[in-house]
Structure formats: structure tokens, C-alpha cells
Amino acid sequence: MDQTVPLATVRSLSAEEALGCIDALAGVLIDCVEGGASVSFMLPLPRDRALAFWRGVIDAVGRGERVLLVAEDAQRQIVGTVQMILSMPDNQPHRADVAKMLVHRRARRQGVAQQLMLALDHAARAAGRHVLVLDTVSGSDAARLYERSGWQRVGEVPDYALWPGGGLCPTTFYFKHL
Q: What share of the chain is helix, strand, coil (3-state, %, to 5)?
């Protein structure tokens, strides 16, 4: 019987654990931006800027405002990450935003993003959230992944953000009911 070993193991990080992984998290972010991902940062992305971003995320995890999931390869190196933002207005306690789905270029097209999204669904249910919302570059690999994973397209906003090297790109918004 053939047993396929998954490329990555996905787990949730506490703030303490995330602080211990901050260099690896910054490395994944920098790799994604250098690879052209429009994820809020411009080129060049200095390491200190990436570290500052992750410190803010870690602070939010510590306050219970975010869930941080990471995917680790067989050598326990972080190859991907995604966040669930739990800090919502009073009238939206059932909802969460999904942010910063990042997969290192060396681990792409191997199911890592799909594993992260499946784990995110489980984490959302555990947190009592049943409506998830996200946005991504229109027509991107990520957009195709979300659509294959049951996310519903809401609409597209032209010229919503910039590519890391400059130039405007459109963004598509999605939601998913769990």
C-alpha cells in the first residue's frame, strides 16, 4: 500500500512560538515579495521591515486577535503561512478575515497552500467563525486555489493595489461559509 507523506505539517503558533520563528517568517515574506506577490509590500523589502511586520502580527496573536498558522516541511522549516484575523466589530463576531497566505517559491505547487486553507477552516470553526472573507490578485494562482476550495467570488476591483515592482493590479474579493 502506497502511503504518501504530506510535504508539510500545518500547525498554529502561539505568540512565543512565533517569536522564535520570526526570522523564518520574514524569509517567507521576503521570498514571496521578491517572487512578485502583491501582499502589501514593495520591492525591495528590507529584512527589518519584514521583521517589523511579523512583530505586529505576533503582538496580535498574543492579544488573541489573530491566529497564525504555519506549514513546515520535513526538516521543520517554515515553507508557508496564513493568518486569520479574529478582531472584528461587535456586529460581526461570527466572521473572520483571512490574510497573508504565503508559500515560499520552493514549496509551491505541492499542496502546501491547500493544506494551510484546510487547517484554517478547522481553526475558524474552533474559534466559532463561520463566515470567512479574503481578497487576492485577480486571475492569480491563489484565486484559482480559492475557487477550487469552495470560496465564492464576490467581485473585482480594478487598480486596487500595486505589484511589488510597481504597476496597478486588480483584486478579487471572496467569501466562504463554513
A: 35, 30, 35
- In tens, the pLDDT along 129-174 reads 999 999 999 999 999 999 999 999 999 999 999 999 999 999 999 9
Helix spans in 36-140 (H) = 47-62, 112-126
The interaxial angle of helices 141-148 and 112-126, nearest 10 deg, is 50
Measured between alpha carbons, how far is 130 from 47 in angstroms, rounded to an integer? 35
Q: Work out the angle between the directed axes of helices 47-62 and 22-34 (0-180°, nearest 10).
A: 130
Q: Are strands 168-177 and 78-85 parallel, antiparallel or unpaired?
A: unpaired
Angle at 141 between CA 69 and CA 119, to 5 degrees: 25
Residue 56 cell numbers, joined: 505586529
Cell of 166: 510597481
As a whole number of angstroms, the distance between CA 140 and CA 142 comes to 5
